[in-house]
Amino acid sequence: MGAIYKTAFWSSLSSFFSSPINQAVIGILLVALMGGLGFTSTRKFTLVTAVFAALGVSGILLQLALFSFGVSRDAFLANFQSYTGVSASQVVSQAFNLSSSPLRLEPISFAILGPAVGFALFNLIGYQYSAYVAGELKGNIKRTGLVSILGSLWLYTAVTWILLVPVVFSVFGYSFLHAWAYLAFNAPSQAPLSGIIPQSAVLGLIAAPKLWPIWFYVTFVADVLMFSLGPVYIFMMSRIVFAWSMDRIVPGWFAEVNQRTATPTRIYVLTLLGGLIFFLMSFPPVGLNLSSLAYYSILLSALTWILPGFNAILMPFRKKELFEMGVLTKRVAGVPVLVWIGVIWLAFILPIYVSAFIQPLISGFFSSPTWAYATNTGVSIVALIVVVGGVIYFGSKYYNRRRGVDIDLAFKEIPPE
Fold first, then answer.
1. Cα–Cα distance between 181 and 183 in angstroms, integer?
2. How far apart are CA 116 and CA 112, in angstroms?
3. Whole-angstrom Cα distance, residue 364 to residue 379?
4. For residue 278, how far is the Cα from the chain centroid?
């Protein structure tokens, strides 16, 4: 709003939210709100997050309707030049001729496909929340879990990627949007509107400025939806640590459940504090690059995406009793269907990870000072997390074995959920 309507009100709000100190204070308040939501019962938590999700979807559907029927490309191009002082074609030319590192829209390759697949998988990973929360709610868990898991996958995929994204590209132009975004991230001083990212609400505001209350609503509900991801992921992480505690990987202190809300509040508090520390580390003097850390978080999640393929291949032979209890016991060409699924999945995911993540990681270490590369990209943080995880597991295994407890037994059974 401040970029389009250059009034004292919007400019002062823009300056307020751009201040690092104010951002830190607001972030701390948002973490506190996440904590308050997480300390409620699971049923209330689910209801609130469902309302947040409904608001977010309403904003997406509203954008879809307006971009399809209420926004003129000609009006956008005229208003864009009026607001920015440059034409859309000049933005494209500027990005493709950037002196430092010009934009290149190259054909799809494994190196490009890898980050795209990683981004898509992380966009769809929210279905796991449905699986985690299902075990804590009453009713027909099997049916509700199936509907919520498949429903969330199909709703997000259909509404966002199949409907909204193609409409946005068709109205505003594929090359233009990539050029604007590229300049915003790589040369903010040369990008339109002082480096503002071309989000859909910004595009709509330029195309139809008189509808600013609608675009304001779209932005607000999008922020609400993004905010809801915080409590949801904290919920999931707290349940993971709760499982560790039940398996004696970490002390039973973590599994203490609040009798009133039936929530592992101790884990929730620790997870909140961990998230708050990472958030504050993104400010000076540390200046942790959270975007790079997110990239390497996808690399860190390689085991999450790759090992299920190996598990599917080995399970019929290594864990026959568990395999016989499953539903994919049929065979094709004498080989269990589960094995074929594992082979197909590995043939898909392994080349992507090797070409898009492993190879650039190795070349990065050899082409620049190792420590500088590790600290600037987040590799050091990821490595630290892996080391700490290994120390916790093997330390707990040694400790429990000294007490006569075999924690490996916990991994020889199918979890209750």
1. 5
2. 7
3. 11
4. 16
